Amino acid sequence: MLAELALTAIYLGGAGADDCDQIAFDPAGFAYLACHSNSENFTGPEKKDMDAYVLKLDPRTREILYKTRIGGRNWDAAFRLIVLPDGTVWVSGSTQSTDLTFDTSHFRPAAINGFLAHLNPAGNVDHLARIGDATTEGLAIAANGNIYLSGTKSPDSESHSAYIAEIAKTHEARILTLGPGTASSLVLDKHGSLYATGFTNHGAFIAKIDVTQWKQTAFRTIGAAPNDRARAIVLDHKGNPHIYGTLTSPNAKADAFLAGFDKNLRQLRYTTRYGGAADELAGFNGTTLITDKKHNLWIAGLTRSTDLPAQGKFSGLDDAFLASFRPNSSRPHAATYFGGTGFEMLEGLALAPDGAIWATGLTSSKGLATPDHHGGRTDAILLRATLATKDAHRRNAVPGSRNAPSSPTPGALLPPRRNPQ
């Protein structure tokens, strides 16, 4: 029997299309969001092109503490961020704007480039670097301050390749290509080794890289179809890597999957598929796989199935899902649908200092939060999940969802979307 989850949600956005791909927390409990929006100033009327945004929120006071725009005349988006103990933030994303001013530039620029920005504790951008001819999808920072990025090199070319780049504190850069494909996510272990996961046209992969020698030392694949894709990677408390993504069946049906390996990638310890009669897709961001304080694995994404093992019911065109698996278990410990009559997808997960699981993504549905205010083609959505007692479930159930009580008590943990900033 599934453990019950208590859910609280809130919209963020304006009259255009809004999406937040990642959420992270600092030790004090402040939340940080990597977003993109074509709503003016993230909360106003619709404009032509997307801009990248970083938001800092205080969930306890419902206050947006800063909202930082990174953008030019064309399309820009923030995908990943890391919050450091001193309150500064590194954020990475992609840009098609030619009018951004960069402090440094790495590799030859092209029509699509990555960016890497540093924000001071006040949220001001004090350094902006261009990662030429690349997407930036994975982000990690070593203890010595070196930054590691991953993604697709030459994304507009038929010869595009998965890559990892190292940006030293001196701004010197080096790149390692892993072959055709995309490196979606990466993580550093305590010994300085780097693990990356992603996909090629022939399935999902996980790779181990010796950072000192700057070479690949192990490589494993899962699946063999073009749509078999790994999106996220995490290390458990023993340092063993786990990956999360989407695997297809011979009939082309897609399921979410988890897979675990030993540290040297010599042994595939388990694979678990999570799905129903239709398709399940892993969230596109590299943070849709995390561990909690009890070492459970949490995943998030999109579903088109009406028969998932999950609380609630399928409600719309595409619903989001959130699920937790205990170590070495093939069945979810807790899982839930999340959605309305439109489209939902969860793309980023984070563990808050109080132990709650937070997810972020996008929605085109009304009625998912109190106050109910959906103003654009898509809005960013934030979801807080905790294992529920009966009373807590009644207090925190998502308004409008099938698992909500008949008269839910408003209890949004973050500021209403149109509060004055």
What does this structure look like?
It contains one helix and 30 strands. The strands form seven sheets. A five-stranded mixed β-sheet has the order 6-7-9-10-8, with no helix packed on it. Strands 23, 24, 25, 26 and 27 form a five-stranded antiparallel β-sheet that branches. The chain is globular. The C terminus is likely disordered.
The number of helices is 1
The CATH topology is Methylamine Dehydrogenase, Chain H
Number of domains: 1
How much helix, percentage-wise, in residues? Answer: under 10%
Supply the helix-strand structural class: mainly beta
Going across the major beta sheet, what is the strand order? 6-7-9-10-8
The count of DSSP E runs of length 2 or more, i.e. the number of strands, is 30
> What overall geometry do the principal axes of the alpha carbons give?
globular
CATH architecture: 7 Propeller
Strand content: over 45%
Radius of gyration: 20 Å
Average pLDDT, to the nearest integer? 89
> Poorly predicted ranges (pLDDT <50, ≥5 residues)?
391-397, 399-421
Distance between the amino and carboxyl termini: 44 Å
Oligomer: single chain
Q: CATH class, please?
A: Mainly Beta
Main sheet overview: 5 strands, mixed
